């Protein structure tokens, strides 16, 4: 799943490549992906791109029309979505239901992009709105952990009283925006913290450690994504992971074997030596530590 660093990489790419271009084509081929109808999708045609920005894991492409309208194209790539960039958009006609392509956008210099989604479970979401906050998911977002106003005390306040596991807190977009399954694994590994630790039970030193791990992990990942074209962002993400997606490999810090806990539709990875005092975490469905 694309998370904050990859979406920020896409935002940086868009700001370098499409600002000032006119939208000449806006075609949806998976109607279920389009979540709004007013303004209509074709309100984008004839509009010029003013800039891109990120809201959590949402990408917001702001435009301006000659008639004074300012529609925003906002999308969330969900678990299996991606942006495929073209210097020259293909002229082939996309057949609805016969392609992973959900949306195609073309610009007046011939370039453009597709939003694609692999697999059978379709969660990619596209919105055309007058203001980004009209998207319900954006309106509900918690603070961005890389914002200058997000301090150690901000994090402490968000954790206070939450009798839930820290892994789930980090992934909850209404609490902290932009962190998903992969980077929550990386943050907790860097913080030397069990994913099952209760948020409200963290001591002052642990909160400080978590805050520093979050800022450093995400800052480094955003820097690694910066300047890369969309086609390179996924591989860059995988290469930068210490534990996520590395089950069975050696922890780069201590050399212990990276372990997994499996859920219905995903998994988490952790290092027992670095994070759980050598204990192996049971499958979450058992909701306990192995004795």
From TrEMBL:
Its cofactor is Zn(2+). The keyword Nuclease does not apply. Keywords: DNA damage, DNA repair, DNA-binding, Glycosidase, Hydrolase, Lyase, Metal-binding, Multifunctional enzyme, Zinc, Zinc-finger. GO terms for biological process: base-excision repair. InterPro entries: FPG_cat, FPG_N, H2TH_FPG, Ribosomal_uS13-like_H2TH, Znf_DNA_glyclase/AP_lyase, Znf_FPG/IleRS. It holds the Pfam family zf-FPG_IleRS. Residues 242-276 form the FPG-type domain. PROSITE patterns: FPG_CAT, ZF_FPG_2. It catalyses: Hydrolysis of DNA containing ring-opened 7-methylguanine residues, releasing 2,6-diamino-4-hydroxy-5-(N-methyl)formamidopyrimidine. Belongs to the FPG family. This is Formamidopyrimidine-DNA glycosylase. It comes from Microbacterium dextranolyticum.
